[in-house]
Amino acid sequence: MSPDLWMILAFAGLLIAGVPVAFSLALAGAVGIVMGLPPAMLATLGTNTYNSIAKYPLIAIPLFIMTGLIFERAGVALRLVRFAQALIGPRHGGLALVAVLVCMIMGGMSGSGPADAAAVAMVMLPSMTKAGYPKPFSATLIAASASTAILIPPSVALILYSIVVPGVDLRALFAAGLFPGILAGLALLVPALLVSRRYGWEGGNAMPLAERPKVRESFKQALPALFAPVLILGGLRSGLFTPTEAAVVAVAYGALVGLFLTREIGWRDLWSLFGEAAVISGVVMLIIALAGIFAWAGTMLGTFRHLAEWIIGLSDSGVLLLILIMLAVLLAGMLLDAISIYLIMMPILIPVMQHFGWNPVWFGILLAMNIAIGQFTPPVAVNLMVTTEIAKIRLEQTVGWALLFVLAMACALALVATFPEIALWLPRVLGYNV
Q1: Would you say 187 and 408 are in contact if contact means Cβ atoms under 8 Å apart?
Q2: What is the pLDDT of residues 77-118, one digit of tens each?
Q3: What does the pLDDT read at residue 186?
Q4: Does the keyword Cell inner membrane apply (predicted)?
């Protein structure tokens, strides 16, 4: 067998055997080096792991993870829910609408789907259950809505994409993800409202008038949370700070909100949050670091080039290949996390993207939308695992609802694929390089 095949089979075999993705990538890369390169090349393992994470933009990832944890603990989700309830009031599907809107706003703070799913589920699930929504439906809707965090800036996945794909402006990616993220949220909202009306969940008397939050009071309480996305995106647009500096500003702002405005976290809580963020960031950085071995071996052996040439040779139709790639990424998203997918697939897909002249910003948004769908599609479905754990239900109970929302978001994906300007219009207007 060729070294290419040895490396690919080693990676697949390790994954099937249950070896964590990070170590599967590293060991498969080492197998490729041993089978196709001089054994002395094993000395590059340390250098490759270091070079993979020695990149300035990667500093933003642990900082945005920290931002998400702070806002989650600071009671921001509860205040956003109360404000949304005050605006929408009791009606069929009202709480479903609240859940989707709050998930989208929370996504504009942390860029992490699982973190948003946890924060919103803790607040929304008891209210939705009391109003008559089945727990499997509520858990699936929140998991699907939280997946928009991968699109709505700031997005941890888009930060990594900008590093993996040379020459892509992260600010353009952030701007390009806004409208597709909103479109994805609306696509989830339509079936949620229709189903709520069909089954009569949460009628007009679900919330007594005395329990309905007052708009002015709830707005004041939610204002610090609503200002967070404005601060981050406004600072990026004005040039006041870079995306990495925006992450620092977001952490500082979140700490101020939690310590002095909501007063739901103390200095000791802040210290524990730093530790929790360090653990999560360490896992992410370990995947990125060890994937560097796999990437270097694949490049030196020509594995990625051979796979790209094979994909290009499948068809002369760019549309057909785009559909096949989207299906492959969707399948990968059902099994792997976003970071692993980018690190594994992008070295193969970059030559294909260049061959057909696809816009890298638009293509990055399509990949992100696909990965977002995978976050709530069984069997792995990281967002869904979080919400079902909070709801105390089995993952299998959500499969039917998950398929409904997968279909809804797939329609949004098809619209962005058919009309690229949905993603590219805003970065062009803002003057970013697309």
Answers
A1: yes
A2: 788 888 888 887 777 778 888 889 888 888 777 667 777 888
A3: 93
A4: yes
* Regions of the chain with pLDDT less than 50: 208-210
Q: Indicate the residue type of 427.
A: P
Amino acid 210: pLDDT: 43
pLDDT of residue 111: 67
The answer to pTM > 0.90 is no
Contact 330, 402 (CB under 8 A): no
State both tokens at 349: 């897909």
